[in-house]
Amino acid sequence: ENILELVPKSYDIIGKIAIVEFDQINTISEKNALHYKKKVAEALVSVNKSVKTVYEKKSEVKGRYRLKELKIIHGDDDPETIHKENDCLFKIDVKKTYFTPRLVFERKRVSLSSFKKQEKVVDMFSGVGPFSIQIAKNSDAKIYAFDVNPSAYKYLIENIEINKMKGEVVAYNMDVKELLNLDNILGNNLKHKIDRIIMNLPEQSINYIDIACFLMKKTGGILHFYQFCEKPNPIKKGIENLNTKLKDSGWQIEEILSSKIVKPFSPKLDMIVVDLKLKFFT
Q: How are beta strands 17-20 and 12-14 bridged, if at all?
């Protein structure tokens, strides 16, 4: 039997690591499953010369740090790797940090947007820095990059150091909700000073709109907003959700710059992005 036919149609390659979800093989008896998985892993390595380690994805992304359970099926159980994307390098631990290579074109699109000179940007959920660092590589923006995961923050610091950038990325290991605290010095310094905000936490981003409104310049700014929305018409629903939340904070959409379905997420949900100009409702 041709083992390549059992390779799942999609799998992720991050640096030297492949992560595979064995949906079809789960129909095989448990006795044969491990044998087949190892054969599939060997086949993957044979056609992807950079891959040295293969993990099986054992769970969906879960928890505050957006991690998934992984089980080694080929090579050394070494979850740390360096991934190259759009001429930037990202050191990553696939067990301790969230990273998806499937947003490569989306990150390139945002990083090549038209940035004003020395624009101030907040990346609310930066992870190891793929949005922030690619923006700073292509513009002289100053990016405030936040992540609540200490491991993501550790790698974000390393990734800032190993990449050559025109702009500047400043990393913070904190939940952006803390910026709203009256005694938060950083929050007070950034309040209504930010030109552009990236909100790539699609399962939760709608719950952070009040922080975006707190940070955005009252004269207006740009929001890159990612959300999981129900089919059909997910973009329409996403904009309606956003509009409701913005009005609660005294803001409104001045202009929709672009909108699209980034990728399907599940049978019922799509991941969407909407790029908007916001303005304070006076």
A: antiparallel
Q: Are 195 and 212 in contact, with CB atoms under 8 Å apart?
A: no
Query: If we measure between CA atoms, which residue out of 60, 176, 79, 82 comes closest to residue 128?
Result: 82
Cα 36 to Cα 28: distance, rounded to the nearest angstrom:
9
What is the reported pTM?
0.94
- The span from the CA of 227 to the CA of 265, in Å, is 10
Instruction: Say what the pLDDT of residue 53 is.
Output: 98
N- to C-terminal Cα distance for the chain? 68
> Widest CA span of the chain, in angstroms?
68
Query: Per-residue pLDDT averaged across 237-252, rounded?
Result: 94
How does the average pLDDT of the chain come out, rounded? Answer: 94
- Helix, strand or coil for residue 107? helix
Residue-range domains of the chain with CATH: 3-78 (3.30.300.110), 99-280 (3.40.50.150)
Residue 281 has pLDDT above 90, yes or no: no
* Rounded Cα gap, residues 168 and 156, in angstroms: 13
Whether 37 shows a pLDDT value over 70: the answer reads yes
Element (H, E) at 146: strand 142-146
